[in-house]
Amino acid sequence: MNIFTIIILAAILIDYMLGITSNLLNLKALDKSLPDEFEDVYDEETYAKSQEYTKVRTKFGFLTGTVDVLILLAFWFAGGFNWLDQWARGFEFGVIGTGLIFIGALVLGKIIISMPFGIYSTFVIEERFGFNKTTPGTFVMDRIKGLLLSLVIGAPLLAGIIAFFEYGGPWAWVYAWLAVTAFSLVMQYVAPTWIMPLFNKFEPLEDGELRQAIEEYAESVDFPLQGVYVMDGSKRSSKSNAFFTGFGKNKRIALFDTLIEKHTTEELVAVLAHEIGHYKKKHIIKNMGISILQTGIMFALLSIFLQVPALFDAFYMDEMSVYAGLLFFGLLYSPVETILGIGMQVLSRKYEYEADHYAATTIEKREAMIDALKKLSKDNLSNLTPHPFYVFLNYSHPPVLKRVETMRKI
């Protein structure tokens, strides 16, 4: 057992224990007393249901997390990575073809293992709490489409990265960084019009009171309204949401049909104002910039560790390769990724407060934004009293009660 084995094993186990600890604290923090702020939205039955939903999802997370860790460790210490590598090399397709087979087999194995859990989550847990609208046909087609996209888009990108590090010399990490950055920017541009419609229908918001109110608000804050679309979120779930995606001529705001169904015009304008706030505050561009920088650092470090035999020895590999090194470095890099992820969560929560502030100060009635948040929390059975440590590790948005309290102080 060399130093890389110890570091990676410790990282996996520490991450697992952090998850267990934060979830246990989160369960302990559940408060049977409904916060006064939500008495006008929740009744006793709905609040109890939201807490039960948190408990069930948490216990399910314990199970899936434990299974994932046990399978990874068993495969690792049984020499599974080396066996798979030798099997992939047997096809004699060259380093790129072998790498695609090696990584593809692992991805396929992960899909097969996670499939029963996905089925149970969708058709048992979500069904039990009244969220699921997914049919078996839609569930299967989503997986098939996802797999096809991985083959059409993911495989060429992976092949390119392997080729850069195999043949690119000392500047391979720079070429890979530039290629991945360009790919990410292109995907941001084309995803709203080419990829997302493969899974959901996006219909332009029809003329009427809501559209008029949105256009008037957008004009008042000088927002170039390229498109507001209604997404058929009810195809899969009764949960509600809204999001901003894309940039340039392809940027769009999408409102779930379930959101429109359950909220007033003023509340919907407030939700849209929040999304516009992200645009006005340049949150999307800032996140992209941070992501590009992180990718460059990761590739620079990867170029170093691909030359270290001890990293491959930690996984009992007979031969070194770029494609296996990508995977092993990913596991070695996971502690750094966890820390960066927590930092990004902190930043994301800051962005949400900023977008809330923007919405609350640009709409006519601040209370509409508060009402929208409270209704969303009820409709999605959100946990109103999450533990601070759980929030610190996992929440990209501040707890809804904190958001409401902050807006009331504006």
Please outline what is shown here.
The protein has helices at residues 3-28, 44-77, 80-89, 94-128, 136-167, 172-195, 209-220, 257-262, 265-280, 283-305, 309-313, 322-362, 366-379, 388-394, 400-408; strands at residues 202-204, 228-231, 242-245, 252-256. It has 410 residues and is mainly alpha-helical.
Describe this structure in words.
The protein is mainly α and 410 residues long. The chain has a domain at 3-173 and 298-408. The chain contains 15 helices and four strands. It has a four-stranded mixed β-sheet with strand order 1-2-4-3. α5 packs antiparallel against α6 and α9 packs across α13. It is globular, with a radius of gyration of 23 Å. The model has no long low-confidence stretch (mean pLDDT 92).
